[in-house]
Amino acid sequence: MDTEFDKLLLLLRSTDEANIRLGFRLAANYPTEIKAHLGYTLEDLKALYKLLVKYDALPDDAAFWEMEHLDLSQNDLKTLSPLIGLLKNLTKLNLSHNHLKSLPAEIGALQNLTELNLLNNQLQSLPAEIGTLKSLAKLNLSHNQLQSLPAEIGALQELTELRLEKNSLQSLPAEIGTLQNLTLLYLSNNQLQSIPVEIGALQSLTDLRLEYNPIQSIPVEIGALQSLTILFLGYNQLQSIPAEIGALQNLTDLRLAKNLLQSISAEIGALQNLTSLNLSYNQLQSIPAEIGALQNLSELDLQNTQLQSIPVEIGALQNLTRLNLSNNQLQSIPAEIGTLRNLTSLDLRNNPLASIPEEVRSLPNLTIYT
Q1: Residue 86 contacts residue 107 (beta carbons within 8 Å)
Q2: How many CB atoms lie within 10 A of CB 230?
Q3: Is residue 259 within 8 Å of residue 233, measured between CB atoms?
Q4: How far is CA 341 from CA 55, 213, 320, 363, 364, in A?
Q5: What does the DSSP assignment read for 13-70?
Q6: Which of 80, 87, 90, 248 holds its CA 20 to 30 A away from the CA of 310?
Q7: Which domains are seen in the chain, by residue range?
Q8: Residue 2: per-residue pLDDT
Q9: Residue 252, Cα to own-chain centre: how many angstroms?
C-alpha cells in the first residue's frame, strides 16, 4: 500500500492543477523529504510552477519539473529565471524571439539539453557555464549582440550545429577547433576580420557560411575541411583565395561574390563536384582555363568582374544551365559556348560586344539577354 508521501508525490506529478496545488499544501508537512527526494525545496517548486503557469508552458503528460520540452518563445522575456536550472530533464529549450540580454549561470544545470534556441534576443555575452551542456547538439544564437564567445564553448563535444549569424563577433576563440562533431557553422553578418587556423580541425564540417564580414584572408588550413559541401565567403574583403581550396573535393556550392579578388588560382579546377560558382563583383579580368574541368557545374556567375576575355575551355561545361557575363568588358565571347546544349540562360548585358557567334545564337533552349 502506498505511503502518504508516495501519494503526495503522485499529486505533485499530476497534470491537474487542483491536484498539484493540493500536493503543495500537503508537502508543507514534508520539507526535508521533498528536498531529499526531488533535490530542491518546496518553495523552489512553487516558484517554478508559478513561472510555467504564467507563460502557459505546463506539460500535459508529465510532472512540470519532469518536462522534456519547453517553449518560451515570443513571450517578451527580458530575463530568464534561475529556476530554469530545476528542469533537469529538459532536452529542448526554445527561448527565441524575446528580449534576453543575458542567461543565468543555472542554465549549465541542464545536462540533458540537446537543443537550445536563442534566436532573436539581445544577448551580449554567454556565461561560461554554457560549456557544461555536454549533451547539446544544436545551438542557435543568431540575431543577437554577441561580441565574443567564451572559450568554454569548445567543451560542447556533441555539438553538430552552431548558428551565430547577425551578431557583432570580432573574433572566434581557438577552442572552436575542438568541436569535432560540428557539421554546420553559420557566421554570416558579423565583424570578423580573420578566421582562426584551428578551423581546419573541424573534419565533420559540411556547411560553412562566412558572408558579410570584413574578412581579409582565409587560412590555408581551410583545405583540411574534406567534408565541406557548402562554402559561402561572399561580401568580405578577400584579395585572394588560398590554393588549398582545391582540396575541397566534396564542395558543391562556392560563393565568392563581392570581394577584392584579382585572380583565381588554377586549383579551382580540382573541385569536380561543384555545381554552383559565384565570382561576381570582383576584379578578376580573366579566369583560368582550368574552369573547364568543372564538369558538374550548372550555374556560373561572373557578372561585374571586369572580365576582358573568356577561355575557350568554357565549352567543356556540358552541364551548365545558367551563365551570367553581364557588366564586363568583353568584346567577344568564344564560339565554344555554342556547344553547351543544356544552357538556358546567358546574360551578356552591358558588354562592348561586336557580335554574338552564330553557334551560340542557334542553341535551341537558350535565352540570351543583351
Answers
A1: no
A2: 17
A3: yes
A4: 60, 38, 8, 7, 8
A5: T-SSHHHHHHHHHHHTT-HHHHHHHHSS-HHHHHHHHHHHHHTT---SSS-GGG-SEE
A6: 248
A7: 277-370 (3.80.10.10)
A8: 57
A9: 17
Q: Which three cell numbers stand for residue 346?
A: 546567358
Q: At a CB cut-off of 8 Å and minimum separation 6, what does 276 contact?
A: 252, 253, 254, 255, 297, 298, 299
Tell me which residue has cell 512553487: 46
Extract long-range pairs of 367-370: CB within 8 Å, 24+ residues apart: 369/326, 369/345
Q: Which of 298, 349, 336, 293 is nearest to 319 (CA)?
A: 298
Name the pTM for this structure.
0.94
Mean pLDDT over the full length of the chain: 95
DSSP string, 80-139: --GGGGG-TT-SEEE--SS------GGGGG-TT--EEE--SS------GGGGG-TT--EE
Whole-angstrom distance, CA of residue 108 vs CA of residue 155: 12
Element of type H or E holding 10? helix 4-12
User: Which has the closest alpha carbon to 319: 335, 289, 349, 339?
Assistant: 339
CA distances for 340 relative to 147, 274, 306, 360, angstroms: 48, 17, 23, 9
Question: Does the pLDDT value for residue 1 go beyond 80?
Answer: no
User: pLDDT at position 4, please?
Assistant: 83
